[in-house]
Design goal:
Layout: H1 3-28, H2 44-79, H3 86-118
Helix pairs in contact: 2-3
């Protein structure tokens, strides 16, 4: 055997040793095919109840909106005769701001209650949650 052939035969196991892990990594980095998504339709009674809840929430939101618009018209009506009185205008502005915040809170509360009623139940595992603090 020639010297070149022997050198090649000595390098062949090293090349194979380096190529095998590289091929394994390339094979493992292939993304797994996506899992099929199974959509389960809820029973008709559940869909009906959800539709009823949605309609009730929508009706209540619209009712609150109409009441807020009427309140704004009343405030504007009260503001006109007292436009020159800055103290009266400041008090009306303060009261109006409070009412607007109350309106927003009422609307948000209604949406939050709807979300909590419609949201799927949370299933907790039997394990206790890990503590975020380390014990000293």
């Amino acid at each position: 055997m020639s010297l070149k052939t022997r050198a090649f035969l000595r390098l062949w196991p090293a090349a194979f040793a380096l190529a095998a892990p590289a091929a394994a990594c390339a094979w493992q980095s292939q993304p797994a095919p996506p899992r099929p998504v199974i959509v389960v339709q809820p029973p008709a009674s559940t869909r009906f109840q959800q539709t009823v809840r949605e309609n009730q929430v929508r009706d209540q939101l619209q009712k609150n909106q109409v009441e807020e618009q009427l309140r704004q018209v009343r405030v504007d009506t009260l503001r006109r005769p007292q436009a020159a009185n800055t103290l009266h205008a400041a008090r009306l502005d303060q009261a109006d701001q409070g009412q607007r915040e109350l309106y927003r809170a009422r609307q948000q509360d209604l949406l939050d209650r709807y979300q909590s009623a419609v949201a799927p139940p949370v299933v907790h595992s039997g394990k206790a949650p890990a503590s975020s603090r380390s014990s000293d």
